[in-house]
Specification:
The protein is mainly alpha-helical. Helix content is 52%, strand content 4%. The two termini are 27 Å apart. The model has no long low-confidence stretch (mean pLDDT 97).
Length: 383
């Protein structure tokens, strides 16, 4: 098997060199994306009026802290722990606003409060994380056996909506169950994962983004195209959430069907990776416009590397080679290691039909850096 560790270590040196000044410059904020001048925004800014589910409640707000914890566990430099805790402490206020929180509390508090507790034993972080886990468990629909995704969306009845992204959020419930020895959290997570396995994963390994259930009976009503090209298409970031999410569920439960599902999605992804390694927004989108999503690319790569941990030795190379192909395409053609931009990973897209494409997202940087650490064999799994 080819050794990719040296390559990953070389790229990580560039990452760490850049993050020294990026972290110092942005140590008091919670960034999401960069402006035209390459400067991070601040989702925790009190000078701007935000929507109830934006600002401090914005779903990606845990990833900046997550990057800091990745750097801390590698370098052991206390400054990264201190910067990470800024996000954690600010986000605790989200509990007061409540209505702006939904299923994404996992993304918000796993890479911050849970990571803090795992790495340092910080007791207050455990309290914050358990609070978030209870909020997530409270979104469970016991008839349909799924976790409701969003709160009410104007013009849509979302009471029965579940989304593939939540396969990552349920890791918060696995942690809560392991930490408290209370099986309820794990049971909810597994029932949700089972529902997703049955209703989201198509026979060919492609994945639905949104599935709507009748909230009163739990019967599946239909699927929605969501952030992909159309209903029945294959939103690449959703493929990543499924691939990596089921691998994580296998890690926490040992349930073989979860690993088999992760592999099924992985094989579909591997078969559809373009020759140049650049991942489109949707694997089934038209050739033009050639919209890309580097964020989805990094998540798929991380998922492939996670699956590789759990398969026999002769299987590993297939997953690792595919992940490295994606990561090399990012590192060599879609990464900015200069001081021209606070973010590293470029050309991310939120949704195929959005008016805006090819910008930066802080969680693309998180998953890119995390995948590099997987390749070097250092770093803990924060999920």
């Amino acid at each position: 098997m080819e050794n990719y560790q040296a390559w990953a270590e070389e790229v990580l040196e560039k990452v760490k060199e850049k993050m020294v000044w990026v972290s110092g410059k942005n140590k008091d904020i919670i960034p999401y994306t960069t402006d035209a001048n390459g400067n991070y925004d601040d989702r925790s800014s009190e000078e701007k009026e935000w929507n109830h589910d934006d600002g401090l409640n914005w779903w990606t707000n845990g990833f900046w802290g997550g990057i800091m914890w990745l750097l801390y566990q590698d370098t052991q430099e206390e400054k990264y722990a201190q910067i990470a805790r800024v996000s954690e402490q600010k986000m605790e206020k989200c509990f007061e606003s409540y209505f702006g929180l939904h299923h994404d509390v996992g993304f918000m508090f796993l890479p911050t409060a849970v990571a803090d507790y795992r790495l340092t034993g910080h007791e207050d972080s455990k309290r914050i994380a358990m609070h978030a886990a209870n909020l997530l468990a409270g979104r469970f629909n016991p008839v349909g056996k799924f976790i409701r995704a969003w709160n009410q969306v104007p013009g849509s009845d979302t009471r029965g909506w579940a989304i593939i992204d939540c396969m990552f959020n349920i890791c918060l419930l696995y942690w809560a169950s392991e930490e408290s020895a209370d099986p309820r959290f794990r049971q909810i997570a597994m029932m949700h994962a089972d529902t997703v396995m049955e209703n989201f994963i198509r026979p060919d390994g492609s994945v639905c983004h949104i599935v709507e259930f009748d909230p009163e009976t739990g019967v599946m009503v239909k699927s929605h195209g969501g952030q992909g090209y159309a209903e029945g298409s294959s939103w690449t970031r959703g493929q990543g959430w499924a691939l990596y999410g089921f691998a994580n569920s296998y890690t926490h439960t040992g349930k073989q069907e979860y690993l088999d599902t992760a592999k099924k999605v992985a094989h579909y992804c591997i078969a559809n990776i373009p020759e140049n390694g650049i991942i489109p927004v949707d694997f089934r989108q038209p050739t033009q416009p050639a919209w890309e999503d580097s964020c989805g690319a990094c998540i798929i790569a991380g998922g492939l590397l996670e699956v590789a941990k759990h398969v026999p030795e002769l299987e590993k190379e297939m997953y690792i080679r595919a992940a490295v192909k994606i990561l090399k395409a990012i590192a060599e053609t879609r990464a900015d290691f200069t001081k021209d931009c606070d973010a590293i990973v470029q050309n991310c897209t939120g949704a195929y039909h959005d008016s805006r494409h090819h910008f930066t997202m802080v969680y693309a940087d998180y998953y890119f850096i995390e995948a590099l650490y997987k390749l070097t064999g250092t770093g803990i799994l924060l999920w």
